[in-house]
Specification:
The protein is an alpha+beta fold. The protein has helices at 16-28, 44-49, 71-81, 92-107, 110-115, 130-150, 161-175, 184-193, 195-205; strands at residues 5-9, 32-36, 60-63, 66-68.
Amino acid sequence: MTDRYRLIIGNRNYSSWSMRAGVLMRHAGVDFDETVVPLFRDDTAANLAVFAPAPPRVPILLHGDLVIWDSLAIADYLHERHPQAGLLPDETRARAMARSICAEMHSSFMALREAAPMNIRGRRPRDLSEAVRADIARIESLWRDCLAASGGPFLFGAFCMADAFYAPVVMRFRTIEHRLSGGLDDYAKQIIDHAAVSDWCRAAVDEPWVVEASE
């Protein structure tokens, strides 16, 4: 099996799931090629079917003849193959907590997702429903607890899988101009300034595609 990966992603500006995998791979320092398949177009499903027979979703990681089409599975695979990259904490309890909050991000916060699509280039203040505010409160509580336990500057001390999974949430908060409470703006700034995140955001700004539904 070749050691070079190929990551298939959607629009960097809008695809939060793609961002998680792309940021994590950049942070891990692995060699990979990246292919963008623009989303929400008539040819999107056909273009993604070239890479994976699974439903038309991104990201997709190709490694030799292996196809992985879920961001959480991609993150776990990278951690197993590159343990030196520190994609999960070394300590057992912290590692379990990091996996837990990644899984919660993976399956929850539907109100926030619907009300505030990720749009790295955009700034769109919005009136937030009680359901969205509840999602935000839960995320802020998770962040505060993790930062208090680790001492920061990232959720588990050093940047890891959990920070990559919540990086798109930082982007959503910035888009809707949500003011974080209790000093969490310092954590958000650490995420925005992280090399892997800032590299992704620069590329997102330069993209030519516009998805009107997310504007």
